[in-house]
User: Fold this.
Amino acid sequence: MFAFLLALSLAAAPPPSVTSPDALRKELDGIAEQFHGVLGYSLHHLRTGDRLERRGDEKFPTASTIKLAMLCTAMEKQQKGEIDYYQTRRLNKEDASEGTGFMRHYREGTRVKLKEMLHLMITASDNTATDMLGQWLGTEPINGWLDRRGFKVTRLLIPWPIQGSFKEDFAARSKLWEPFKQWGMGVTTPHEMGELMEMIVDGRAGTAAACDEMHRILNHQYFDDGIAGQIPPWVAVASKSGIEARSRSDVAMVHSPSGDYCLAIYTREARDTSVKRENEQDSAIRAISRAVWRHYHPQIRWTPPAGVEKFSAGPDW
Assistant:
């Protein structure tokens, strides 16, 4: 109850007096300069108008953050009546994908609703749900959605629908898989992915109803120890993260007492490829998120409590 009342009082209060954004920029750039690899970020505080970027327009692997574009495309088709939110697809044995998610443990033959796939793809970054949706939607419509919204760099690079097995399709259509070999699942910039998150939250990514539903889904993250892990639990955070060996990504809209702010952080060519909480990439993302939060909320003394690391994701990422 105390946390709820505190949140209400802070939300009603005027924005706190904070130091110049130049001081924050210096702190964030210091984190990036010490990073062994390439780190870019894009920050937009909607209430103050502050915009800070480092390598904001450079290309980075999206990893699972490209799933935001898949979500938007599916919702557009649902709103047009081309697919139904409760329409189902059969889970076949060949659909099960390794990596994150729960659907790979479902029984073969299970009928899975579109809604369930979308929720699991975003909240748990479920790779089986993602593959089934990719086959269902196709890559061209997803990249077409990005084109129509003015995104110049952000692209999904898996050429769905895949014919036969992944290995067979890769061999038969090797030229189409070239971008995937360079970037992985997708490519973007910190600025563009931040813009995509803002579009979902402010209603420009689709109908009001679709954006409302997407925003709700993004508020329910299973993997929330990146940007969101440095924000008090009583503050709503809509986010999506991604992980590959030499890159990490996290994009979030933080509905903070000082006003909403959007933060996108990307790495590439990282030296530390370990899968543990102390990975330098994940640590840098947390450090940037923590610095931004503290800059805009100097009056709030909250910090992540001791022992929180025991709840971090393990090697099943």
About this structure: The two ends are 34 Å apart (CA to CA).
